[in-house]
Amino acid sequence: MYTSFSFFCTMLLVFRTSQSFLRFWGGTTNVYTMMGDWFDAASTVISFTRYSSAGEEQVQIFQQTLVRLISLLSAMILAELEGTEPGETEKAMHFELVDVECIDADSLILLKNSSQKPELVFQWIQNLIVDNVCTGVLSIPAPLLTRTFQDLGNAMIHYHDAMKYVEVPFPFPYTACTDILLIIHWIVTPIVVCSWTSHLGW
């Protein structure tokens, strides 16, 4: 009976540990894939400006604004993924950003008051790209530019996929059941060991 109970507790622990390991690597994979997509999208868009029909100053403004927004988006996403308790300050909010002071004050105030900060900055990036198609800064053929939006969209998918690890904890009933069984096992083990021994020294 005790052996079967010990085996059952062991299986519960093994399952819980394996699920924790899978959650850890799943979240890590999502974050690194997301960062790779951001870099790929930014790098691709900046390389597209070599084909631009606009002036050099317009191209420079677009490139610098894009990099600033990508930097800001990364910080907002990492802040959301921290999963801090209410009242705590996200460490990601103190990350060094790329020249965020050049973003207009009204936009920063809007971002501060927003409950969906990553989504808002993501929309700014998409708007920036579309607006500069009209100005001629991005005069690359549309099928090539589509790849950028695919990279941006994939990155946001990975972000929301990673958020499930923040918002959905390990099931409490399973955790509570495991803890209770381990406590019972801890109490029963000395009694069982005593019944197995006949000498006081053991």
UniProtKB/TrEMBL annotation:
<keyword id="KW-0813">Transport</keyword>
<keyword id="KW-0472">Membrane</keyword>
<dbReference type="InterPro" id="IPR044669">
    <property type="entry name" value="YneE/VCCN1/2-like"/>
</dbReference>
<keyword id="KW-0812">Transmembrane</keyword>
<keyword id="KW-0406">Ion transport</keyword>
<keyword id="KW-0732">Signal</keyword>
<dbReference type="GO" id="GO:0016020">
    <property type="term" value="C:membrane"/>
</dbReference>
<dbReference type="Pfam" id="PF25539">
    <property type="entry name" value="Bestrophin_2"/>
</dbReference>
<dbReference type="GO" id="GO:0005254">
    <property type="term" value="F:chloride channel activity"/>
</dbReference>
<keyword id="KW-1133">Transmembrane helix</keyword>
<feature type="signal peptide">
    <location>
        <begin position="1"/>
        <end position="20"/>
    </location>
</feature>
<protein>
    <submittedName>
        <fullName>Uncharacterized protein</fullName>
    </submittedName>
</protein>
